[in-house]
Amino acid sequence: MIEVKELTKTYKVGSDIIKAVDHVNLEVKKGEFISILGHSGSGKTTLLSLIGGLTKPDSGTVRIDGTDIWSISDNDLSELRNRKINFIYQFASLIPTLNIIENVLVPTAFRPKDEPINYYEFAMELLDIVGIKDKARSYPAHLSGGQQRRAAIARAFINNPEIILADEPTGDLDEETEAEIMDLFKRMNKAKGITFIIVTHSSDLARQTEKRYRMANGILKEEA
Amino acid sequence: MLSVMVVAATLFSVTTVMDSVETSIEKGTARLGADIMVVPAEAEAQAKTALLAGEPSTFYMDRSIEDKVRKVKGVKAVASQVFLKTAQYKCCSVGNMLLIGFDPKHDFTIMPWLSKELTRPLGTDEIIMGRGLTAYNVGSKIKFYGKYFEVVGMLEETGMKFIDNSVFMPYAAMKKLAEESKHKKGVKAANLPIDKISTVLVQVEPEISPQRVAIFIEHDIPGVKAIVSEQVISSVRKQLFVLLRSILSISIILWIMALLLIGVVFSMIVNERQREIGLLRAMGAKKSNIFRLIMTEASILSIMGGIVGIVLGGAFLYAFKGFIRSSLNIPYLWPSAAEYAVLVAGCLLLSFLTGAVAALWPAIRSMRMEPYEAIRRGE
């Protein structure tokens, strides 16, 4: 389903050229639950952004369901992101001027207007699943870090994505919340067949996934 | 929003005043109904002051001039008028008011402009009033030189004090009034010269310019001055518009500054919201969605600024309307509802364009950001 071939991305920092992603090859089948482990600056976040079509590679290809995402137009890529992929970030990614339910509904604003889906009800259902239904009308500033992360997770599922790209999804959360969120991911993975690629620096978290990769200096290797 | 508000307020006030003056002069001259006003040569300045500022003044020339003017090449119609000032004695309800005697047979300057048409000829104790004399209405009684007159018609407001603040009566009635005043006890006699007129109003043939006819009149009839209405208008327009154009220039400078300021503010907003923009793109927002988002925000803020500015500009005009009227010392007529609507729409459009133009570059810049870079830079 996800095919990454010879993917390379370099950055120029001053006079130095840094290879953030260095000829990476990766295949992720539909419904797989994988993790990419690595230290800060190893290039794992850049790899995730390349797979998700957020930044353009210098060379190499990313194919999702056979479509080379960097050969299609920007509009088509936006649509593909909206339909198939969603991101969970390590930072607070909610829009502060919108309340929680509005934040969860943001991705639906870019869906075709004639979809016969009651997104509001679905959003409430998702907030119920992540355990913050009672905070639907609250603003992000009034929620704890864990609650904000749950809201962002609910938002990630609103468009029924096929792929979730999670960048340190439990980064600054306590162990209990981390366990709850991982449990939720596993449930969604099993129930809906959603593909998960989780980027983390935590070996404990990586151990909970089916397949593990390690990234160092832009090079990706599968762990045994 | 504040900068758009200031620009909108200034532009609205200035354009309203400019429009009002222009409309007033045009309307007033149209109501005057004459292309040329023939007056004694020595009374030119007085006549112009009377015409524009409504300063009551009397001057006279021989009645035979009316016939002479009628015979000049290019003249289509003539109507003479006689001016008489009311005295500041108890004989008159209002002192220092201009009574204008006209010839109903040849008149084309008064009767067509009555706000309510009068189908019968005026009696010798009936008058028509300008709209500026707000204390009186149709049916009111007013005393001149010891004689009561009934107001039987009101002229529509013109903004020209000469018309708005004057009282009109047939020449015959004025003559009778002057005659009777001589025999009334305790009443100052009206000083109306016999067989004299104050002005001859001229309508010219359509195929000839009023300027040419004015030259013919001055050439054919010695001792008179032919004042062309258009020239009076253009001289006033020039004087006033020099002042208003300066204010308008300042408004344009303010507008350019507002454009730059809004542009800078929106650039800062875009910088502050880089992460949000990146996140929206990651969630599937197209470049066009981001562009529309920024443009819509800028437009809404600008239109809101415009609305507040128009309200403030309007409030300023309302608060200082008396001062504006008196300090301009020229015909002034508030715009009609339709004219206001056009001015408001124009100012709103300009406000919208201000926001839209100023936010254009920040919107394009935000649209072009690569989502990952936008998210990273916004962290």
Structure in words:
Chain A has 224 residues and is α/β, with parallel strands linked by helices. Chain A has seven helices and ten strands. In chain A, a hairpin with a 2-residue loop joins strand 9 and strand 10. In chain A, helix 4 packs across helix 5. The longest helix of chain A is centred in the last third of the chain and has 18 residues, at 175-192. The model of chain A has no long low-confidence stretch (mean pLDDT 91). Chain B has 379 residues and is α+β, with helices and mostly antiparallel strands. Chain B folds into two domains: 2-22 and 235-378, no CATH class; 30-227, no CATH class. Chain B contains twelve helices and eleven strands. Chain A binds chain B through residues 46, 49, 52, 54-56, 74-75, 78-79, 81-83, 86-87, 89, 91, 93, 95, 106-107, 109-111, 155, 159, and chain B through 275-276, 278-289, 370-373, 375, 379.
Keywords for this entry:
heterodimer; A: 224 residues; alpha/beta; Rossmann fold; six-stranded mixed beta sheet; four-stranded antiparallel beta sheet; 7 helices; globular; B: 379 residues; alpha+beta; 2 domains; nine-stranded mixed beta sheet; two-stranded antiparallel ribbon; 11 strands; 15% strand; elongated
List the helices and strands and how they pair.
The complex is a heterodimer of chains A (224) and B (379).
Chain A: E1 2-13, E2 16-28, E3 33-37, H1 44-51, E4 59-64, E5 67-68, H2 74-84, E6 85-88, H3 100-105, H4 119-129, H5 145-157, E7 163-167, H6 175-192, E8 195-200, H7 203-207, E9 211-216, E10 219-222
Parallel strand pairs in A: 3-8, 3-9, 6-7, 7-8
Antiparallel strand pairs in A: 1-2, 1-4, 4-5, 9-10
Helix pairs in contact in A: 4-5
Chain B: H1 2-32, E1 36-40, H2 44-53, E2 61-62, H3 64-70, E3 75-85, E4 98-102, E5 126-129, E6 141-144, E7 147-154, H4 161-164, E8 166-170, H5 171-183, E9 196-197, E10 199-204, H6 210-220, E11 224-228, H7 229-272, H8 274-282, H9 287-319, H10 321-328, H11 337-368, H12 371-378
Parallel strand pairs in B: 4-8, 5-7
Antiparallel strand pairs in B: 1-10, 1-11, 2-9, 3-4, 3-10, 5-8, 6-7
Helix pairs in contact in B: 1-7, 1-9, 1-11, 7-11, 8-12, 9-11
